[in-house]
Amino acid sequence: MPQPLQGYRIVDFTHVLSGPIATNFLRLLGAEVIKVESAAGDTMRNYGGIQYADGMGPSFASVNSGKKSIVLDLKRDADVAVARELIAGADVVTENFRPGVMDRLGLGYEACKALNPRIVFCSISGYGQRGELRHQPAIDQIIQSTSGMMSLSGEPGTPPIRIGYPAVDTYSGLLAAFAIVAALLQRGRDGRAQQVDVAMYDAALVLMISMAGPHLLTGKRPAKQGNRGYSMSPTADTFPTAAGHLTLGAVRQDQFERLCRVIGREDLIADPRFQDRGTRVAHGEALQHEVRQALAGRGAAEWAELLNAAGVPAGEVRELPEALAQPHLDDRRLLLSIAAGDQALRVLNAGFCYEHDGPGLDAPPPALGQHTAEILAGLGRTPEQIAAFLHREDTQARS
User: Fold this and answer.
1) Choosing from 42, 169, 197, 237, which is the catalytic residue?
2) Do the beta carbons of residue 91 and residue 122 sit within 8 Å?
3) DSSP label of 299
4) Which of 180, 63, 82, 199 is closest to 129 using CA atoms?
5) Which among 12, 127, 212, 386 could bridge 133 via Cys, Cβ 3.0 to 4.6 Å?
6) Strands (E) located in the chain
């Protein structure tokens, strides 16, 4: 049985991170993704210091496995003609240049719609294709700054600090993939082309809906809350233990009472300062002091086992390598092992499971231009024409 997007073709003009993340999700669901690159290749091929097969950096390999690569110089009319042929037979075009670049190349939405009246055309940019900020350049860290995201991270009174990974790029890519799939469903009903406009700034604000939503409704300015949970309960926080740190999620009254029993402090249940959620928040520092002292008697892993068994949400704070090494992930098929020459690349799957024919892939990331001949042959080029095209490509790479 085919995967959900098998049979769909994506012509992918994206580079670096947000766009390749979007098409990575589409590829995991079975779509054919043709990655259009310059002779220099996607900048991310050289990110990260460590190089895998064919000189690919780990960041590139992580989000480009299973795609096909064709090298085109979009400043040359002949290569733009190849791009137009690909678009004419595609379902989706993705790009993440600054607004206006694809139009100047003759490959913007209107031009693509003229070639293919059913095309789904997705643009990802910092501030979108419309609006007064649309021409401002942006990267993940800039959007974390301008969206208010950095003002929410850290402890109260600390300077702004970014989230420790490119959260905006990642969520923008995921949102773009979701929007593309929705547009394909819409096209199945009305048969019309659709322009999808994803702005990283918009995506960042939507990602913060748990903070932005209440502010819009109440006008209350959000404040930094460190590791305190969204509930603001003093027992939904991260605490030091005898070995490592432990995060608690004791929000409800029954969870608070179970916590007190497990840590040997049943007396806190009867303390009038902590009798309900309101009084616990009001006396949060005092309650956290008592909990911190009690937790000092055991290590985080031991506390987590005891508390979870008692129905209290708890988890030790892990480093990323330890989180990825959990046997639980084997049953989830979250980690894929892909043969790449004499290496085995480990990459992440889509992050959800189907009963059958779900996300996954078994092909490595492409070497630069690896599929140029195959793609040209699919467009009807003769072997002689393909050889001439590749010879010109090699000449450009050497110059």
Assistant:
1) 169
2) no
3) B
4) 199
5) 127
6) 9-12, 32-37, 68-71, 92-95, 120-125, 194-199, 238-240, 245-248, 314-316, 335-340, 343-348
Distances (CA, A) of 67 to 36, 156, 194, 241, 328: 10, 44, 23, 46, 28
Amino acid in the structure at residue 131: G
**Quick check: is 169 catalytic?**
yes
Tell me which residue of 239, 258, 266 sits closest to 309, measured CA to CA: 258
Q: What does the longest C-alpha to C-alpha distance in the chain come to?
A: 87
Across the range 4-9, mean pLDDT stands at 98
- What lies within 8 Å, CB to CB, of 388 at 6+ separation is none
Query: For 166, how many CA atoms within 13 A lie in the half-sphere containing its CB?
Result: 16
Q: What is the DSSP letter of 71?
A: E
Q: How far is CA 137 from CA 9, 72, 125, 132, in A?
A: 29, 24, 8, 12
**311-337 pLDDT, tens digit each:** 999 999 999 999 999 999 999 999 999
Do strands 245-248 and 238-240 pair parallel, antiparallel, or not at all (unpaired)? Answer: antiparallel
pTM for the full model?
0.91
- Interval 260-317: pLDDT, tens: 999 999 999 999 999 999 999 999 999 999 999 999 999 999 999 999 999 999 999 9
- Cα separation of the two ends of the chain: 47
